[in-house]
Amino acid sequence: MSHYFQKKVFIVTGASSGIGRSIAVKLVQHGAHTLAMARSEDSLRELKKELGELLVSCVGDVTKPEDCRRVVAKALELRGRLDGLIHNAGISMRGLAADCSKEVYRKLMEVNFFSTVDLYHAAMDSLRSSRGHLVAVSSVMGRYSTQERSGYCASKHALQGYMDSIRLENLSQGVHTLVVSPGFVNTNIAHNALGPDGQPLGKRGAATEKGLDSLVVAEAILHAIKKRKRDFYPAGVKEKLGLFLSKWAPGLLDRLLLKVAVK
Predict the structure, then answer these.
(1) Residue 50 neighbours by CB distance under 10 Å
(2) What is the per-residue pLDDT for 81?
(3) H/E stretch holding 11
(4) Which residues are catalytic?
(5) Which of 87, 88, 233, 240 could form a disulfide with 14 if both were Cys (CB 3.0 to 4.6 A apart)?
(6) pLDDT digit string (tens) for 197-209?
(7) Longest C-alpha distance within the chain, in Å?
(8) What residue ranges of the chain have pLDDT lower than 50?
(9) In angstroms, rounded to a whole number, what is the distance separating the alpha carbons of residues 47 and 244?
């Protein structure tokens, strides 16, 4: 697989930790010029120190359109092309819908959905020129919803719908679009999740601690990119069962979800 990514130019958002960081690591290992975008300058500095010259750190916020344009411009300035954009940055939440402020929902939509719109607008022409890859890291909760995740599920459903639409708009342009919908992965997403008041909860979830290894997931994502898949579900047995039941036995899925607390 290394041959496929050798000397290609990729942007990865949310690259300071978790799946995004692991994707950046794997891209560099496979020889890709990788622009890693995140808000944490310190984390990017450590990543650059680890990965060397193939990694370019780009401090920025995906909720700011100017930062989205800037990272694409930097790729073109440094390498003259853009072969792939992997949008991984995201945020989760916990809390009953009745208790959550509208500001929490706005924050989730800005990070998880509207940033995708801004990045697509910034990268569209370059990806069409290279017949490249547009990848959005979503969640199985973009396919079916669970309790106490209303804002997160809504934002990921919006992301899925948007990517499905622009896939059709780009079929004749040669751009490959992929939605990655992971199940539980061992990352800090639960620790950073917002509570009903909009403040980070600051505690890890039991399900994420037992989740898949992010480096294994990242390698599988690169394989899905190479194969130009349209959807990919790196998930455990329970999450994949949920995907199956959501299509074929949604009532049963509802009853099962009511019996468990998703942590």
Answers:
(1) 12
(2) 98
(3) strand 9-13
(4) 152
(5) 88
(6) 999 998 877 788 8
(7) 53
(8) none
(9) 38
| pLDDT for the residue 263 | 55
Please, which residues have CB within 8 angstroms of residue 44's CB and are 6 or more apart in sequence? 15, 16, 36, 38, 57, 58, 59
CA distance 177 to 6: 20
Query: At 111, which CATH number?
Result: 3.40.50.720
Q: Which residues contact 107 (CB under 8 A, 6 or more apart)?
A: 91, 194, 198
Q: What is the DSSP string of 139-207?
A: -GGGTS--TT-HHHHHHHHHHHHHHHHHHHHHGGGT-EEEEE----BSSSTTTT-B-TTSSB-----HH
Predicted pLDDT of residue 261: 65
How many CA atoms are closer than 13 Å to the CA of 250, on its beta-carbon side? 6
As given in the structure block, the two tokens for residue 49 are 């120190």
| Half-sphere CA count of 173, side-chain side, radius 13 A | 18
Q: How many domains does the chain have?
A: 1
Whole-number pLDDT of residue 205: 76
pTM for the full predicted model: 0.96
DSSP 72-141: HHHHHHHHS---EEEE-----B-S-GGG--HHHHHHHHIIIIIHHHHHHHHHHHHHHHHT-EEEEE--GG
Characterize the bridge pairing of strands 33-38 and 133-137. unpaired
* Residue 86 bridge partners (DSSP): 12, 135
> Scanning the structure block, which residue is given the tokens 């499905």?
164
Identify the domain containing residue 116 by its residue range. 2-259
What integer pLDDT is reported at residue 209 of this predicted model?
86
Q: What is the DSSP letter of 258?
A: H
